[in-house]
Amino acid sequence: MTPEEVLGLFRASGALLEGHFELSSGLHSERYFQCAKLLEDPRRAGQLAEALALQLKATAGPEIDLVVGPAIGAVVWAQEMGRALGTRAFFTERSAGEMTLRRGFEVTPGERVLIVEDVVTTGGSAKEALNAIRELGGQIVAVGTILNRSGGNPFADDGTGEGLPLFSLAQARAVAWEQADCPRCAAGDQAVKPGSRPGAGMAAGGGHSA
Ligand code: ZN
């Protein structure tokens, strides 16, 4: 599956929103990729996961024992990646602000773990998830996402020797601002959080390119 085909699926499924959005990172942007809409068709979700699994296998990296993603965004994606790779799959979630494992999910020390996220912009939630898994002894081997909006790899080696490869199906760099610098906010427009506002910003498919 080519990056253009993947972006085409975002458009075709109404998952590419145009407007004024507050991303989960807190940054403001005029484009929002609503992966929940992309993944609402289980067959499409399965095809995307198969494509990323192929990419992972082609790198001849270590085998993967487990897939973990941060809730809520990565719950469905983790499940689909686990199915594609033939591994267990579950999610971390916040408890009193702290990313943690609940519901009896367990990591055996030494297990090789793929961290997944639906969209990576700053990689903040995925980093919290991978730190939680590392503390439990899991060995993180890579990060896998549908769409990389970071313009690079937020998980790359920062000098600690703990850098991770980031695999993605497509890239679309986010043009985003801190709220204080956002031109839409400066014009008095209220940003929406698509994750929590049903139907917000449904003017999809415009010609704006970020
Ligand atoms: Zn704004």
The gist of it:
By secondary structure, the protein is an alpha/beta fold. It contains 6 helices and 9 strands; from the N terminus they run αββααβαβββαβββα. The site of zinc ion (ZN) has 7 residues, from α6.
Give structural notes.
The protein has a six-stranded mixed beta sheet, with helices on both faces. A three-stranded antiparallel beta sheet has the order 1-2-9, with no helix packed on it. Helix 4 links the parallel strand 3 and strand 4. Mean pLDDT is 89; it is low at 196-210. The protein starts with a helix and ends in a 24-residue tail after the last helix. Helices cover 28% and strands 27% of the residues. The chain has helices spanning 3-12, 35-38, 42-58, 75-85, 124-135, 183-186, and strands at 16-22, 28-33, 66-70, 88-95, 98-100, 112-120, 139-148, 166-171, 176-177. It is globular and about 50 Å long. The chain binds zinc ion (ZN).
Tag the structure with descriptive keywords.
single chain; 210 residues; alpha/beta; Rossmann fold; 6-stranded mixed sheet; 3-stranded antiparallel sheet; 6 helices; 9 strands; 27% strand; globular; binds zinc ion
